[in-house]
Amino acid sequence: MIVLSNELIQRADRYIDENHETFSCLGGRFFDTFGYDRSNNVISTQIRNLQQITCSATRFADIEDFVKNQMGKERTNEQTQQRWRALGDDVLQGLEQLRIKSQELDGDADNQMALRLRLARGWVRAVVSEYLYCVAHDQMEPTP
Amino acid sequence: MTLVDRLSDTTYREQAVKQVDQLLGDNDQFPIKAAQIYGLRQIARQQPETVNEFANRQRERAQHEAEIDFWNLVSNLCSDAAPTWSVHKEGHVHLPVELQNIPARRQGMTHEEQRHRNELTRNRREWLGQWDNEHIPAFFERFCTHALYRLGKE
What we know:
heterodimer; A: about 140 residues; mainly alpha; two-stranded antiparallel ribbon; B: about 150 residues; about 70% helix; elongated
């Protein structure tokens, strides 16, 4: 297991903090696109799946592949696929930025892998937090 | 993190995207069906040593040139004789030092030298076989996912 230096961890975390607004904005778009089940108070399984894969992946490309799979596969319901197709390329672009950042932060290939995963976990925290905030906000509105 | 993790996250991802995108070019029409890509992924996961054979069989059945090109590419990607990059060739880059330069067969080799050479050759073959078994599934996971992604954009 790769142990990142404190300095690298701080630099990665600073990047997450500095870009929090951009990531949050994506969380808002997830809410607009996927919504949630208001009557049963259940959030979108797609958001949970994205969070789960991002937090458990050992390879950053597995997160990218999750998004590509959701956009590409035929054996899913059409509505979910359409939603992913509306948002997926922006998600992939966001992940690509994290990949580039990891390369800027350190030249060592193993450190870059660990950095990518750390950045991805920070990224998904911000995205999901904003999504959940939007859900909470919506629940405060009177039922239409 | 193992080498297969690192390559899967970098070289295999880059090559998968490059090979699929290069094959398709600006053409929006994907040469094969999603079911065939699912099939390829399944074969790569469960029987990586048969991907080449599977690709050759699919190519024989292919009816369009673009389809033939696709299966040629798949076959090349796990071949030693590929004109460009392949998973198998990547294995040669990572061969352990002791298996890299096996002395050529020559006249007058002692029995001990011949035995040593044969042992190295066998170890190298086994090592590369093991490489293919581990790395072909990892590469084709990326390749098939990117192909499905491109197919979904049609």
